[in-house]
Amino acid sequence: MLMRKIKSIIVTALVAVVILSAGSIAVQGLGHQHISKGSGTKVYIQGYNTIGHKGTGLYGTNKEKVVTGVKVRLKEGKFNKAANNYKKKGGWTKKLSKFNNPFQKAKTSYSWRY
Questions:
Q1: Do 48 and 103 belong to one domain?
Q2: The pTM of the whole model exceeds 0.85
Q3: What domain of life (predicted)?
């Protein structure tokens, strides 16, 4: 009886740790600066920053400077597009996306403005 209770407590504690860990990772990823990108049948990139906040250190931001914008770029073959949120000084950039050509290498990049 005692062993069942101990096993139950251990399992409950492990489940709680896993849930809390996943939640903290999600919160970190969607902070004041964020880059969303992916590949598969479609390749895409989009950037985000909150107006008037110092860099968090995530995605290469400088912790000592206030981020005023982000520029994202998507290149694949002759496709070469860029988007930024400099005029708005924050918020989401336009989402750049295209169907992935398996015969060409897609490259995404981003840079922060301070």
A1: yes
A2: no
A3: Bacteria
